[in-house]
Amino acid sequence: MSMGAAGTQTAATDGSAVPATDEFLKGVWKQNPVFVQVLGMCPVLAVSNTATNALAMGSATMAVLVLSNLAVSCLRQVIPPQVRIVTYILIIATLVTIVDHLIQAWSVELHRALGAFISLIVVNCLILGRAEALAAHSSPLRALWDALGMGTGFLLALFCLGAVRELIGSGSLFGVSVLGPQYQGWVVMMLPPGGFFVLAGWLMLFSWVGRPAHAVAAGLPDRASELGRKA
Asked: In the chain, what are the domain boundaries?
């Protein structure tokens, strides 16, 4: 195998090789944490009222996810199985504390806007889930690609929600007026209930785009429609 081909693959602990691009795109699209797995809904709905807040929370979560995956993977041989969950939480809490102080040093206003949701990254099931499901059983390189994919997917999902909510709610994007001073914003979009409306729209769009081409051509219902009828 050439050096270029070897660089595009990550080795798992069982000796098998997983393409790095597949590992990354899995989290961005196929198993998107928000639009497919519906994880981390607390910050997704509460903090994504502006594009700036969404990017800040998404970046903070991604940083913690990447570093915790690497730490867990590197220490997987020395962490006793009986205390692995406690150890994972301790690692995550340490990283969240560091990120919290960095955000506060960077911008007090942004830190105040995110509030307690920065600390709640500790209990984000996405981070603990990736540590337990993959990082604890994989090489550091594969754990890194997995964290980068899942983190990017989470970041993009928050930005999609934040951009739409800010644009509809106040007619601006990143604090810059887009729709002009005559636009009367839909205030509910800036509140937590607006997050449900926008999330529902993105979930519907993501489900429709992700349907197989043959199912669309045949007019077959998607998985979400089937579950809705069964409920």
From this structure: 16-207
